[in-house]
Design a protein that fits this description.
The chain has about 90 residues and is of the alpha+beta class. It has 2 helices and 6 strands, in the order βαββαβββ. Strands 2-3-1-6 form a 4-stranded antiparallel β-sheet, covered by helices on one side. Strands 4-5 form a two-stranded antiparallel ribbon. The longest helix has 11 residues.
Length: about 90
């Protein structure tokens, strides 16, 4: 099955010092970032080390993923992949 292209990326292993603005700046050289959002802990409001970056086009997202996946940033090896948009019921079976 072919991988579906998307303009939304999942970025993991981010430094705990990364901010939403820092994430946007990190990924903006590759295209027009429409959203850059870190996932934060509900209780502490501290970043969990992963987030999402959305581009205007799939081409920009693919370019960013190609360059940023496996890159060292702030002493951390980043993993960048296409964000999952839906889950299938088979994924939850135990």
């Amino acid at each position: 099955m072919a991988k579906r292209l998307s303009s939304k990326l999942f970025v993991s292993r981010l430094s705990s010092y990364t901010t939403n603005e820092g994430l946007r700046q990190m990924f903006s050289p590759f295209g027009d970032v429409t959203e850059a959002r870190l996932v934060v802990d509900r209780e502490t409001q501290r970043p969990k080390g992963f987030g999402f970056v959305t581009y205007k086009s799939e081409v920009e997202a693919q370019k960013a993923m190609k360059v940023m996946d496996g890159r060292m940033v702030n002493g951390r090896l980043l993993f960048v992949e296409v964000a999952q948009t839906e889950r299938h019921s088979e994924d939850f079976s135990s």
